[in-house]
Amino acid sequence: MTMPRGNVAVLIENAGIWDTNRSRPFTGSLLIAGDRIVSAGEVEQVTDHPASRNAFRIDAAGSSVIPGMTDSHLHLTALSRQRSALSLFEASSKEELLEMIRRRASELGPGDWVYGVRFDNSRWADTTLPTLEELDSLGIPNPVLLLRVCAHLHVVNSRALQEAGLAAEDISGAGAVRDKKGCFTGTLRESFAQPVVQAMKRSSTGGTREAVALREAMLELASQGITCIHTCSASSYGLEENLEAFHYLHDKGELPIRIRLYSDVAIPGWTKSGEGDDWLCYGGKKFFLDGSLGGRTAAMTFPYEDDPSTRGMLNMDTGEFIEQVREEHLAGNQVQVHAIGDAAIDQFIKAMEALKDLAPLKEGLRHRVVHIQICRPDQIERLARLGVVCDIQPVFVPSDIHITKARVGKDRLGWAYAWKSMLQKGVLLTGSSDAPVEPTNPWRGIWAAVNRVDDEGKPEGGWLPDQRLTVDEALALFTLNPAKAVGAEDRFGSLRPGKAADLVILDRNIYRTPPEELRQVRPVMTIVGGEVRFVREA
């Protein structure tokens, strides 16, 4: 499709327009002039607008047209960098993983790092993690750093420790996993891997040199219908964002999608949520209260069913966390808090309740809790009363169906991924991928929220089926709700006149699509700020 150049209005006709206050879409038209939607509704209403007379016309042929989609929690720079890393997700056993590492090393120089990502030992017959001894036994001259799919566990070899100025006998602390003999196994949990991660990054690219790769990653997101991201810079986990490259692209007018950045460390020049503009701005402070369910580092109030020796890990003292959250709130900053287990969620709730004596944040901002995977019914009630935002990842369900019962036990399984219960209590939910932990395609997330099955379609009828969402509820997670979460629903998240021209034309009418086929939905065109950022060739 050849698109117009310059300041030409665009009229999208015969569209199944999804408007966020309707239970079903209507067939009509939508008119874009400049970077705004100027009219939307029935055909006659839109074509009466003066800007429609010489508009470039697009026939949507009855396909759905939806607001631009937002991934409300991911790690963009890590996603970009992992595109060139060794993906280990397909490794079906530890032996296959080790062979993949051996093959990659044979393609590299002796001092080059083997950076392997997204391995998932929970899918193996032998679920034990690879060890330092096993990596060393490969006999390769390369430093090796492996990142588990949850991004909360790293595994290293001895050469990687040497590059970081460490030795196995020097590794200590709760984050260093030891075997029954007290020997370091090579596994580093949470932020304990940071010295090795930083050693690897000293030999990698950075600064504006990374701008091209980052832009390519954003264009791929646009091809999936994503027009905005809320990305998280997590320096303590080796997942910092390349803000220099973001500014470089922004100043050149080459950001293809919008970026809102959260960070666990201070960012020079930004001190308050919302600073920047609609293309690149500061979201607020990020906190990590616990780890991951897959790595058994998510903090629980109970022992893990499949490892009673642990209740996971809390990363912060409750009093210290409350004090820091108050400081951010008084500075006008929204916080985004990683909390997976119910013990970490308790910490978050206590901090929010400790803010009751303070005035609310301005501009409609509400504090956010991310992941919230194991959440008790009493916690859902308190979260609803507090009016906080819960950033969830529906795409986790296909991955976690087979481990959650083993981790939390049958009696607590109803606490897991209880999104319908949260919506029924009035909790504002946003949808995201946590990429590079999971794939970014939001339609996989919508499919997972609606069906709650694994990739083979099991169990029939859905896992904890009472928690399945409707298509409307799932679509709102990625459109209107993220805009509400940052107080920007007056500009984004719906297809109303005056809103930003951020929208997606899909390849089908989603209301004529069987629920099990929702993950096959693909954009035909993605428009951001009135500019076409992606168009699928016929």
Question: Can you tell me about this structure?
Answer:
The structure is a single chain. The chain is of the alpha/beta class and 538 residues long. It folds into three domains: 10-67 and 500-535, Roll (Urease, subunit C, domain 1), CATH 2.30.40.10; 84-201, Diaminopimelate Epimerase, Chain A, domain 1; 289-431 and 438-487, TIM Barrel (Alpha-Beta Barrel). Helix content is 27%, strand content 22%. The chain is built from 16 helices and 22 strands. The protein has helices spanning 43-47, 76-82, 94-106, 132-136, 158-163, 194-201, 211-223, 243-251, 318-330, 342-353, 377-386, 396-408, 419-424, 442-451, 471-477, 480-485; strands at 10-17, 26-33, 36-41, 56-59, 64-67, 69-74, 86-87, 114-119, 144-148, 153-156, 176-178, 184-189, 226-233, 258-263, 280-288, 334-339, 368-371, 389-392, 428-431, 503-506, 523-528, 531-535. The strands form three sheets. Strands 1, 2, 3, 4, 5, 20, 21 and 22 form an eight-stranded mixed sheet that branches. Strand 1 and strand 2 form a beta hairpin. Helix 2 (76-82) packs across helix 7 (211-223), helix 9 (318-330) crosses helix 10 and helix 10 packs parallel to helix 11 (377-386). The chain is globular. The mean pLDDT is 92.
Provide the structure class: alpha/beta
Which CATH C-level class of the largest domain is it? Alpha Beta
- Counting DSSP E segments of at least 2 residues, the number of strands comes to 22
Would you give the CATH topology of the largest domain? TIM Barrel
Largest sheet: 8 strands, mixed
Summed over residues and divided by their number, the pLDDT gives a mean of: 92
What's the overall geometry? globular
What name goes with the CATH superfamily of the largest domain? Metal-dependent hydrolases
Percent of residues in helices comes to 25-40%
How many distinct domains?
A: 3
Question: Terminal Cα separation, in Å?
Answer: 8 Å
Report the β-strand fraction as a percent range.
15-25%
